[in-house]
């Protein structure tokens, strides 16, 4: 019984605390129409797929820029996708080829010439405790 208690305690101490925050400063918001959505991905699997984000937040659009904040994160590697939902349907509208019709961006401002950005290109490290800040510039 004592061994189990010691094992549980050592496991708890070895697990990183949920104390880091990631603040995403978004520029390039073209108008005050609609909302800006920020989706946080904790891994490559499902990156940029609907419903696969670990967390998401929506803020009122503001041409001066907006800020999205994700709290209680474990230290690790994350990526954030941002979209200016101009028409208010809370999704990034695309054309028949799947190319976004609304302004969008990802961390590291990764924007390949062909295809969608990869998790690896957009990945940012969230370290330890405190606030980690990144910026994303939206583009059409």
Describe the overall structure.
- The strands form two sheets. Strands 2, 3, 5, 6 and 7 form a five-stranded antiparallel sheet that branches. Strands 4-1-8 form a three-stranded mixed sheet, with no helix packed on it.
- Helices cover 12% and strands 38% of the residues.
- Residues 1-12 have low confidence and may be disordered.
- It starts with a helix and ends with a strand.
- It is built from two helices and eight strands; from the N terminus they run H-E-E-E-E-E-E-H-E-E.
- With 140 residues, it is mainly beta.
- The chain has one domain (17-137).
Note the main attributes of this structure.
140 residues, mainly beta, five-stranded antiparallel sheet, three-stranded mixed sheet, 38% strand
Topology overview:
Blueprint: H1 2-14, E1 20-27, E2 35-41, E3 55-60, E4 66-73, E5 76-85, E6 104-106, H2 119-122, E7 124-126, E8 130-137
Parallel strand pairs: 1-8
Antiparallel strand pairs: 1-4, 2-3, 2-5, 5-6, 5-7
Helix content: 10-25%
Q: Provide the domain count.
A: 1
What is the number of beta strands?
8
- Average pLDDT, all residues: 90
Low-confidence stretches: 1-12
- What portion of residues belong to β-strands? 35-45%
Largest sheet: 5 strands, antiparallel
Radius of gyration: 17 Å
Looking at the structure, what is the overall shape? globular
Number of helices: 2
Order of helices and strands: HEEEEEEHEE
Our measurement of the CA-to-CA distance between the termini, rounded to an integer number of angstroms, reads 61 Å
Q: Based on helices, strands and strand pairing, what is the structural class?
A: mainly beta
């Amino acid at each position: 019984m004592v061994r189990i208690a010691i094992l549980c305690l050592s496991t708890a101490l070895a697990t990183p605390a949920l104390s880091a925050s990631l603040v995403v400063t978004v520029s390039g918001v073209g108008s005050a129409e609609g909302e800006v959505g920020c989706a946080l991905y904790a891994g490559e699997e499902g990156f940029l797929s609907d419903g696969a984000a670990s967390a998401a937040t929506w803020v009122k659009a503001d041409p001066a820029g907006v800020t999205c904040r994700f709290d209680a994160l474990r230290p690790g590697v994350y990526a954030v996708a941002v979209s200016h939902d101009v028409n208010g349907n809370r999704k990034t509208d695309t054309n028949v080829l799947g190319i976004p019709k609304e302004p969008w961006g990802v961390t590291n401002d990764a924007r390949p010439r062909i295809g969608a950005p990869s998790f690896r290109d957009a990945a940012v490290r969230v370290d330890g405790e405190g606030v980690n800040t990144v910026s994303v510039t939206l583009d059409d």
